[in-house]
Amino acid sequence: MSEEAADQGSESKLTVVLALVVNLAIAVMKAVAGIITGSAAILSEAAHSVADTFTEALLLTALRRSDKPADRKHPFGYGKERYFWSLLAAVSIFASGAMFAFYEGFRTVFGEAEEQTRPLVGYIVLALAFAMESVSWAQAVRQVRRESKAQDRSIVEYLRMSDDPTVKTVFLEDSAALTGLLIAFAGVGLHQLTGSSVWDGIASLAIGVLLAAVAYSLARTNRGLLIGRQADPVMIRAIGQRLREAPEVEAVVDLLSMLTGTDRVLLCARLDFDDALGAADLERACVRIDGELRAEFPDLDEIFLEPVPRNDPAMRERVLSRYGFNL
């Protein structure tokens, strides 16, 4: 793993640990406030913070287990463990956060009217929770901005293409937490102004929808990574250009890549080499090309170079069926 990747891993761990500590404290505060005020929205927010705390614990497991070195049973390493545990984190957000919020919302909207007690306690706790959550959110934003700038991408594009689900998870759940607090504040306020608990229930339902949307987004991202997503297209195009520039290579027939973990890429290049090369020349060329690629693209973890003829019809058909055109 490169020094830059190690630094990113340390920052990811800091981001997750900070979020875990903050969410655990907030969950206790919200639970107490929810019991005192009887607010469905605040109770839903308590469940939200409990879900976030479980999520951070799962993300810490992901960071720890994905760093295990490759061995005989897992020759490509354990990098995809990060995607598995992050997928479980998305399920946790939905199962323990969104479902409880929906339950509280429907119970309050369609059940018997409930009297609001000591709303001031709710306002104070929500304000404190917002201030504390902002600390965790600010750390996530700093990391997202720094890494998106390093990749010369917008924040939206970085979040869409990132191969580190832990950062995206913390960023999205913290953003959802701040939004949920504002929704809960509105629900408590409207309940106090109108005397109707329906507004509290509507706020709880809105929090449930918010959490379900975040959970779906994260689950979809991790599903793609677990299945085996292609590496960064910008990097793959640059690798293809470097291979074409190699004096021994006449054509790049196929270029396959897969993310095997955060900052870990498996590359398989099928190349048409100069027919004049002898076996020893071909071996030396492959060793040199491998070294040059690793030096320029440190995310490359495993590289396979396969000599194939460019005019082989079966190979051309496979490439055409995969990309819609020949490389």
Describe this protein's structure.
- By secondary structure, the chain is mainly α.
- The protein has two domains: 3-227, Alpha-lytic protease prodomain-like (Up-down Bundle); 233-323, Cation efflux protein, cytoplasmic domain (Alpha-Beta Plaits, 2-Layer Sandwich), CATH 3.30.70.
- 71% of the residues lie in helices and 9% in strands.
- Strand 1 (249-261) and strand 2 (264-273) form a beta hairpin.
- The chain is elongated, with a radius of gyration of 25 Å.
- 40% of the residues are buried.
- Residues 16-226 form the Cation efflux protein transmembrane domain.
Keyphrases for this structure?
327 residues; Alpha-lytic protease prodomain-like; Alpha-Beta Plaits; 2 domains; elongated
Strand-pairing-aware structural class: mainly alpha
CATH topology of the largest domain: Alpha-lytic protease prodomain-like
The helix content, as a percent range, equals over 70%
Number of DSSP E strands: 3
Low-pLDDT parts are none
Q: Give the N-to-C terminal Cα separation.
A: 30 Å
CATH architecture descriptor text of the largest domain = Up-down Bundle
Number of domains: 2
Output the helix-strand order.
HHHHHHHHEEHEH
Strand line-up of the largest beta sheet? 1-2-3
Give Rg in angstroms. 25 Å
Q: CATH superfamily assignment of the largest domain? A: Cation efflux protein transmembrane domain
Taking the sheet with the most strands, its summary is: 3 strands, mixed
Number of helices: 10
